[in-house]
Q: What sequence folds into this?
């Protein structure tokens, strides 16, 4: 059921958007027509979205293996056994899964950075499930570091001191991009992005998103100042209290208390 296979990130995303539009139409504007076509007395039926933004309820492809990943099979069987709204929501979830599988089937030959860009473009659109159920996508909360992208592109160690990163100074963009891709957050596993604030742990020598360990650029500066002069915190006790707040995360990740590597003297 596929036409010419898209190759580039833009072509794959265009294909995804068109198929998604068809599926959204089937489950919203044309929902009564779609509902009537999903007769439980018929054989296994699938809901297809096509690159021309059309939708179709049809039997699965006969060829094995199929030309493209197949959508959920037998969506019609559960129609009369469920609440209509719940059934449509279930079909919408399966539609989202199918759309992703088709896109990444086409994107199998993309490199890692291209796949990441493709998913980012897809993720900026509401899912079929969100549209059908009326749920609003949750927007990322603005963080302190988001307003200081340029001055926070330098990674910092856990003591707040800037730690040089030779990757950022590489003049060869492609080589630089590949090297940066080898750095992953020790908490969430996300890849390096120069637009985000990162901080390094002196114990395990791993890097972390500042947001994952709840350390903002301002707090990193505060830690740095406190290490050089405990009086900046007012008392040594208040600085140790801050260390204790950070200990819960790093002690589990590094198996070592962070404050052991900090020296106030």
A:
């Amino acid at each position: 059921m596929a036409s010419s296979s898209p190759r580039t990130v833009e072509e794959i995303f265009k294909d995804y958007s068109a198929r998604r539009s068809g599926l959204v139409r089937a489950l919203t504007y044309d929902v009564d027509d779609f509902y009537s076509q999903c007769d439980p007395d018929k054989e296994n039926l699938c809901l297809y979205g096509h690159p021309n933004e059309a939708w179709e309820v049809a039997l699965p492809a006969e060829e094995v293996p199929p030309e493209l990943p197949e959508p959920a099979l037998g969506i019609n069987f559960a129609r009369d056994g469920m609440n209509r709204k719940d059934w449509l929501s279930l079909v919408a979830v399966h539609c989202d899964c199918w759309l992703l599988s088709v896109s990444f089937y086409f994107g199998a030959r993309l490199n890692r950075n291209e796949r990441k860009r493709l998913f980012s473009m897809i993720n900026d659109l509401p899912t079929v499930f969100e549209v059908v159920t009326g749920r609003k996508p949750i927007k990322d909360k603005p963080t302190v570091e988001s307003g200081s992208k340029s001055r926070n592109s330098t990674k910092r160690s856990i003591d707040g001191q800037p730690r040089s990163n030779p990757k950022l100074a590489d003049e060869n963009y492609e080589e630089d991009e590949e090297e940066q891709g080898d750095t992953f957050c020790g908490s969430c596993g996300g890849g390096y992005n120069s637009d985000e604030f990162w901080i390094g742990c002196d114990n395990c020598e791993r890097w972390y998103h500042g947001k994952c360990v709840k350390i903002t650029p301002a707090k990193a500066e505060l830690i740095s100042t406190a290490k050089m002069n405990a009086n900046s915190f007012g008392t040594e006790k208040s600085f140790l209290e801050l260390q204790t707040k950070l200990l819960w995360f790093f002690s589990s990740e590094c198996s070592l208390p962070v404050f052991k590597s900090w020296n106030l003297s």
